Amino acid sequence: MKERITKTMLVAAFLFAPFLGMSQSNYPTNAQTAQRLQKIASDHSQITKLESLTKTDGGADIYVLRIGTGDVDNKPGIVVVGGVEGFHLLGTELALQFAEQLVGEKRSALDKTTFYIFPNMSPDASAQYFASLKYERRANARNTDMDRDGRMSEDPFEDLNNDGHITMMRVEDATGTLIPHPADSRVLIPAKTDKGEVGAFKIFTEGTDNDKDGKFNEDSEGGIFFNSNWSYKYPSFQPGAGEFAVSEKETRAIADYLYDRWNVFAVFTFGPANNLSAPLKYNRSGATIRVITSILEEDQKVNAFVSDMYNKTITQKNAPDNSGSDGDFFQWAYFHYGKMSFSTPGWWAPMIADDKDNPDQIPNTDKNSEVNFMRWAEQNSVDALVEWTSVNHPDFPGKKVEVGGIKPFAMYNPPFEMVADIAKEHTDFMVGFSAMSPGLSMVNERIEKLDNNIYRITVDLKNTSVLPTHGELGDRAGWLKRIRIETGLAGGQSFLSGRGITLVNSIAGDSHETMVWLVQGKGNVTIKAGAPHTGYITKTLNLN
Amino acid sequence: MKLKIYLLSLTLVATAMFASTDAQSQSSNPEHFFRAAGTPHNPKVNVAWNRYYSPSGIADIMKKIAAAYPDLAKLESIGKSYEGRDLWLLTITNFKEGNADRKPAIYIDGNIHSNEIQGAEFSLYTAWYLTESFADVAFIKELLTDKTFYIAPTINPDGREDYMRKANTASSPRSGVIPIDNDRDQLVGEDGADDLNGDGHITQMRRKNPNGRFIVDPQDSRRMIAVNLGMQGEYELLGQEGIDSDGDGSNGEDRAEGYYDPNRDWGWNWQPGYIQGGAWKYPFSQPENRAVMEFAMKHPNIAAAQSYHNSGGMILRGPGAQEDLPTYDRADTQVYDIIGRKGESMIPGYRYLVVYKDLYSVFGGELDWFHGGRGVFTYTNELWTGYLMYNQEGGGRGQDAQYEFDKDLLFGDALVNWETYEHPMFGEIEIGGFKKNVGRAHPGFLLESDAHRNMAFTIFHAYHTPKLVIQSIEEKDLGGGLKEVNVMIKNERLIPTHSSHDLKFKINRPDYVTISGGPKVITGMVVENADFNRNTEQVQNPSKMEVANIPGNDVIHVRWIVSGSGNYTITVDSAKGGIVSKSK
Question: Complex ipTM above 0.85?
Answer without folding.
Answer: yes
